[in-house]
Design brief:
single chain, alpha+beta, Ribosomal Protein L22, Chain A, 3 helices, globular
């Protein structure tokens, strides 16, 4: 199915945000594993819940591969969505604003 710009804009705002969240998550994942677009994007699925968290979900019911990856989404600026995918090795990801880090008295 091809969706034209006018059709996409007419969609519910929450649905559009979930589309962008999913796309940035897929893009971050294929970059993290180093395959680029040779990895079949249709194999990557996410569960986005009401708390605005995102988790990998398997189409085939096997989560063992996906559990080794963590995905983080954030808004670097209003109306922008970014995703970061890292291997699950106990890293703690923290977000700082430029002002907090460099603009202290």
């Amino acid at each position: 199915m091809i969706l034209k710009k006018s059709g996409f804009i007419s969609l519910n705002q929450a649905y559009r945000k979930n589309c962008f969240t999913s796309w940035t998550g897929k893009e971050a994942f294929i970059k993290a594993i180093g395959t680029g677009l040779s990895f079949p994007l249709k194999e990557i699925e996410f569960k986005i819940n009401s708390k605005k968290t995102i988790k990998f979900q398997s189409k085939h019911g096997d989560l063992s591969y996906w559990r080794k990856w963590n995905i983080y989404t954030f808004n670097p600026l209003p109306n922008f969505i970014s995703s970061l995918v890292v291997e699950n090795n106990g890293l703690k990801i923290r977000k700082y604003s430029w002002d907090d880090a460099f603009m202290q008295d």
